[in-house]
Amino acid sequence: MSRNRNVDVHVTNVFNHAKLQFIMRSPAGPIAKDLLKRAARVESRAKRNLSGITGSGPRRIDTGLLRNSITSQLFVIPEGFLARIGTNVFYARYVHDGTGLYGPKHALIYPQTAKVLVFRSKIYGAKRGRFRGKVVARYVRGMRPNPFLKDALPTFRT
What we know:
158 residues, 4 helices, 26% helix
């Protein structure tokens, strides 16, 4: 025995433009914070990829300079936000893309101004004599790539 009543319901929507601008454009807003959090995850994964832990490629840490130079930054642009993850170390591209046979040119590395290549090596260097602690070679195959940044990008989506 219920009675049907006609009840008028009025809903009023107030659009807060300032709040929307804060969410969409402010570096302190939730969109920017989420973007920074995702960029930090990519940065962390790229650093782990260099150490050879995650299987991205061979271990590429000697002094730790490249790993420590990987940073992420947030930029405010007219379209919204931009996150940039990268490094300013000059040899990062060679580590990432590889060199010689394994790099973009797919060719052996030969000396340009001398008869042989000479470089230091703690493991394979000569034990004594003029080239103690150094390797002498007519050519080298190069270095296998470790695409530490490219392989870290999928963590941005998670």
